[in-house]
Specification:
Chain lengths: 134, 552
């Protein structure tokens, strides 16, 4: 089994500047031994997909607190698929109303973490669900 | 305070002989910000404290006990609920609803594209138009937003920063076309761009040109809008991003002092503009720490304005503040509990001597509030104002050993940060080197870690949880609002004189490259129906844009 660390892109799509959560997650994943690439703010879906592919990431965490998740998440998922990166695990975090979660999962989001989710749960989820590198 | 040596000995004796034999709960006794709290405060804790020098009287230097002599006996704080969603028509309706329910001022929340200087038809605005606030693109939108509201009577606050000068131009022109001169307008526009780079992160330009635009506006307002507050120096977002109370206090005041410095460098007399500066703080859940923060803030501001900047007019030294309860203290779990959190926070704001207050609605960890939730939030303020008896006397906590000690410690912590920022070359240089951003991100991480270790309890989140605690009814953004707003923008663009637009935009771009005040040019653009996005783009051609290097 390879020693390769899990590579995660933490991304902030859209225009909102609420990066507290994204930065906490990025740091918690890094502290848990993962390779973390944080995109910074105000990323377009195109930029995020490009980062995921360029960084050869295993997973991407999208942090959205702007209410624009139903516009932005499907775009990121579609772009990853178009570019042959459909095996990248996509998770979403932020203020996501419960009613929207089934639709996000139907689109291919592996899990949605809402306010109050412990960082340990997120670390564990990634460890359990990122396909073991070949 | 003169200390009776006998009392000091008695306090020691009590601690050693009585208290130390008691059992304490196994929890950290510290404030939300991690500041240690002693079992008891006595006169001994105030040995370096001079009541006359450090507290004074309400309405007199250093204003620790409040900025006005009569405080709430003279006039209650302004109940000002922040509102904005969808198109300007819908927000106008919400404003009228709030005024009908006894609100006494207006406060406008704009959507993300407006905050970032993008028009509603920009590709990057897709999915965000009218979602987190109201969408606004031109002066026509501004006119509709305040339609039927007497702008010479109701004071209006606008939360907008990077493009603040543009929105002020819209506001001035909308009022002017309605027969109200700029000089009669009362209200506040946030304009606090430094805290955007530190915490809120909605920007259009690099820091230096952004500071020039702020100073242009301060200069223009000091001549043309005597009732207007051109900057609301804001700790709110700094705190929400994870700062401690001490960091909120220090970074906000240092930002404020930096604006004063820039205006003085521009050649303005400090007493010409400082009376129009106002502040905006967070009211978080640690009751006494927050009260101490407001009291320390007033004292530091008064001293710095008088002693560092040589202000003579007492109005330059008074720190007037708006306060908002902490959004970040609210939980998605068991949301009705948020009403209680907000009540405690609002009470801290009032006991801390705020001039206006926004109380968050209980559903705001999930979405923008519903009208019912907003009404409860407003009722919370009304209960404090009219039932609790709290406003009957000025600064009822003044003289409390604990509150005075905490106020002194808060002040000392702020000065420690001032020294560290000065070592880095001032606030702009400190921001460029990511100093405040890193301090805040470390504090946010530590707070989260304390929650996960269980050192800190959040009711309903890491203790006392229940299943099925979700709200069934939340505000959902209207998906059709984006289309309606694009139509509004297209209509304004179709009606306008394109030659006038080109002339106004060309003049703006040229002036941006020169050493000229941009406000009159922005007003000309607003009259010609130039959109916000067009003005920002014209200035970006000269100023460039901003990209941060994130730290975490």
């Amino acid at each position: 089994m390879s020693e390769r660390k899990i590579r995660v892109v933490v991304a902030k799509p859209g225009l909102d500047g609420h990066d507290r959560g994204a930065k906490i997650i990025a740091r918690a994943l890094r502290d848990a031994g993962m390779e973390v690439i944080y995109t910074g703010l105000h990323q377009t879906p195109e930029q995020i997909a490009a980062t995921v592919i360029q960084e050869d990431a295993d997973a991407v965490g999208l942090s959205i607190l702007s209410g624009a998740h139903m516009t932005l998440v499907p775009k990121v998922v579609a772009m990853l698929r178009e570019q042959g990166a459909e095996d990248v695990l996509v998770t979403v975090g932020g203020t996501i109303p419960a009613d929207d979660i089934p639709e996000l999962k139907r689109l291919g989001v592996a899990e949605v973490f809402t306010p109050g989710a412990p960082t340990d749960d997120i670390v564990e989820f990634l460890r359990d669900h990122v396909a073991a590198p070949a | 305070m003169a200390i009776d040596p006998g009392s000091e000995r008695r306090a020691h004796q009590w601690l050693e002989e009585r208290y130390s034999r008691e059992r304490e709960r196994e929890v950290p006794f510290e404030t939300l910000s991690g500041h240690p709290v002693a079992p008891l405060y006595t006169p001994e804790d105030l040995s370096g404290h001079d009541a006359e020098r450090d507290e004074g009287f309400p309405g007199s230097f250093p204003y620790t006990r409040g900025v006005y002599p009569s405080m709430y006996r003279g006039r209650l704080w302004t109940m000002r609920q922040f509102a904005g969603f969808g198109t300007v028509e819908e927000t106008n309706e919400r404003f009228r609803y709030l005024l009908d329910h006894g609100q006494t001022g207006l406060s406008t929340a704009f959507d993300m594209p407006t905050l970032m200087g993008l028009d509603s038809d920009h590709a990057r605005s897709l999915g965000e138009v009218g979602v987190e606030g109201v969408a606004l693109d031109t002066v026509d939108d501004m006119a509709t937003l305040f339609d039927g509201i007497p702008l010479d009577e109701v004071t209006v606050s606008m939360t907008i920063n990077a493009p603040a000068a543009i929105l002020l131009a819209f506001y001035v022109v909308a009022a002017e076309e309605n027969g109200i001169a700029a000089g009669k307008l009362g209200g506040t526009i946030q304009t606090d761009i430094l805290k955007e780079y530190i915490a809120q992160k909605e920007w259009c330009f690099p820091i230096e040109p952004a500071m020039r635009l702020v100073t242009d506006m301060v200069e223009w307002c000091s001549g043309e809008m005597p009732r207007w507050h051109p900057i609301s120096i804001s700790g709110y977002h700094i705190r929400e991003a994870g700062a401690t109370a001490q960091q909120e206090l220090a970074f906000t005041l240092k930002d404020g002092l930096t604006y004063v410095e820039r205006a003085v460098e521009r050649g303005l007399d400090v007493d010409e503009f400082a009376p129009r500066l106002s502040f905006f703080f967070n009211a978080h859940i640690d009751f006494f720490e927050e009260i101490a923060k407001y009291r320390a803030a007033r004292r530091i501001w008064a001293r710095e304005l008088r002693d560092t900047f040589g202000a003579k007019d007492p109005r330059s030294m008074l720190m007037r503040t708006h306060t908002q309860t902490a959004g970040v203290s609210l939980t998605a779990q068991q949301p009705l509990v948020n009403i209680i959190r907000t009540t405690i926070e609002a009470l801290a704001g009032v006991l801390g001597g705020t001039q206006s207050l926004h109380t968050n609605s209980f559903d705001e960890a999930l979405a923008l509030p519903t009208p019912d939730a907003v009404r409860i939030a407003l009722r919370t303020q009304q209960v404090i104002a009219h039932e609790s008896g709290v406003p009957n006397t000025v600064d009822p906590l003044g003289g409390s050993y604990f509150v005075e000690k905490l106020t002194d410690e808060m002040e000392a912590a702020a000065y420690d940060y001032f020294a560290r920022i000065d070592e880095l070359g001032g606030m702009v240089a400190a921001i460029e080197s990511n100093f405040p951003q890193r301090e805040i991100s470390d504090a946010a991480f530590e707070h989260q870690a304390a929650l996960e270790r269980g050192d800190r309890i959040m009711v309903g989140v890491n203790a006392f949880e229940v299943a099925d605690d979700e709200l069934t009814e939340i505000h959902r953004p209207d998906p059709a609002a984006e289309g309606r707003q694009r139509e509004r923008l297209a209509e304004t663009m179709a009606r306008r004189d394109e030659d006038a637009v080109r002339t106004a935009l060309g003049a703006l771009e040229r002036a941006a490259a020169e050493d000229r005040n941009l406000m009159p040019l922005l007003i000309d653009c607003a009259r010609a129906r130039v959109s916000e996005g067009e003005m920002v783009a014209a200035m970006q051609r000269v100023f460039g844009t901003y990209t941060e290097t994130p730290v975490y």
